[in-house]
Amino acid sequence: MKKFLMNAGVQKIFAALLAILFGLVFGIVILFIASFFISKASYPMDALYTIVTGGLRFSGLKGLGIIMRFMSPILLTGLSVGFAFKTGLFNIGASGQFVIGGFVAAYICIKWTFIPLEYLWIVGILGAIIAGGLVGLISGLLKAYRNVNEVISAIMLNYIAMITVSNLVSVIADKNNPSRTMPPLSRIPTLGLDKIFGNNTTDISIFIAILVAILIYIILERTTFGYELKACGYNRNAARYAGINDRLGITLSMTIAGALAGLGGAMVYISSITKVFDSLLTLAPEGFDGISVALLGMSNPLGIIFSAAFIAALKNAGPALSRSGFNEEVVKIMTAVIIYASAFSLIFREKLVQFFTKKGAKK
Amino acid sequence: MNTDTMVFLIRNMVPFMIPLTIVALGGMFSERSGVVNIALEGIMVFGATFGIFFIYFVPDLMSPQLMILAAMVIAIISGVLFSWLHAYASINLKANQTISGTALNLFAFAFHDFLARLITKTGTEGVSFKNVFRIEKIPFFGDIPVLGDLFFKNVYLSTFIGLAILAIASFVLYKTRFGLRLRACGEHPHAADSVGINVNRMRYWGVLISGALAGLGGLVLIIPTTVEYTGTVSGYGFLALAVLIFGQWKPSKIFLAAAFFGLMQVISNSSGLAFFTSLGINKYFYQIVPYLTTLIVLTFTSSKSASPRAAGEPYDQGKR
Q: Which of A304, A311, B71, B310 is deepest in the core (most CB within 10 A)?
């Protein structure tokens, strides 16, 4: 038992679960306080039930399909943020990389009709990976060669990307109609999943995302390349001393992170989801969900698969909360509290170790 | 460019420049004490939320200037309380300061939307308020030619408060014992500790001051620039961090940097002005100008960074 609890992986899972519990408790408090003051919000327990079931109490199997669909883009933006975190960088720019990737994918799938329609989605995905990677590359180069704080440059790129895309939308839109439907054949294939879940947006994107997560895990944990990137993250100077090209490492880390977020954009914009390139000028929320996913998953690619599922379920529960008189922001507040609590994981693990080593010593 | 355009640009620069200065000064206190405060954006939103709610619910009880003062006090208090969470996480619990800051950002947005949707009559996240806070003309000073038109007519109380804060901040940072101790904690906390300075307490001061200023800055940004607060400060918290870096963590340079970004923001908003349409540049360029110039400026100023050496690292007494 003690050996089991001393395992770093197990401790991380415990820390994540504790953070979730913390978020849930806070959510309950918020629900009850709100229900006390506001007459229309009078069913806190009902709302809690909706949150805990991820909204599935209303939508069942179909809802599961929707959760799977919600999950793939935030799994990929989560991997993007997590990968950068593992290499010592904070990629808050997933939002911009995501929207650029999504735009390029949509552009390819609508305009490049000289490619057979059945294969077009693959080209679109590759285009999104390259485009997102290029956005990440800018932050990476600025950080590595000009010492520009990657958080600031990424935030600025988020806004530049958002404005650029909303200006370019007219290129792919129909002349008379600002919205248009992606040709069904050039979307990400569903392989019958839409029939199984009775929901026409469910497609294979979730499997693509999970495969990418496993790939990233292998790169980070089982290759020299991944080891070098992580070394740059732990201590840039030590890495350089050991003969690692730290500037190249930082540049590549941000590029890969950008590519992952760009792929996430493709998952949304060349699918059957109704989604607009926002001309109201708000940043793509998937990028920020990616931060929550990565932090809750402790930046571990495999952990991120589960945290993405969890956040996707919470997002699915959000709109259903109006049935009990609340709004979906409750879920966002809970997510924020969970992230706050997960920042304590280090001290929690220390305490756990202390507790069990003391106990062991007494015996 | 004729004088009308110049006057227009300078006059409209102020509402952006003042909050940027205030918030960047807040960031300065926090980072100089050794705690990176990426939550400035969220604290701005949080402060503005309570300040605006106050104005929303107490419309006609007092005179406008008294009301805005009260709203500012409320924004400051809520900013301090909110930043306490960041201080606790990053000082007491030695948590990752980026994670804690991000959590605060996420929380502030969600919390505003949650409250606004439940409380406003319309049930939307926008909280509209009447802007009655503009001062038409300040007696005496408003009569000075040119300068009076520029700075003493149609102004907000916040402008003068912002300038006062700038003066006080430079004084505190450079001319008081407190300022010296604060800076020591951000540069070399172990050395500071060895001469009897309580590093954790100084860092608490740094973060809480940044909370107060960011909360105030959020409200001060919202009031002149809009009549409906939707729970966003459009990335100004992050722009303030850029101002802080561009301003090399020094009050006077921060003020100049904020003026520069304020000017960029005005240019971005005034693409319809006769002078700018005559230049024939695409509207798209104006939209990205504040963000693009930030990137370019940082590219050329970051390599010789004067960032406090210990910023971002939790203080560990046992560490060498």
A: A304
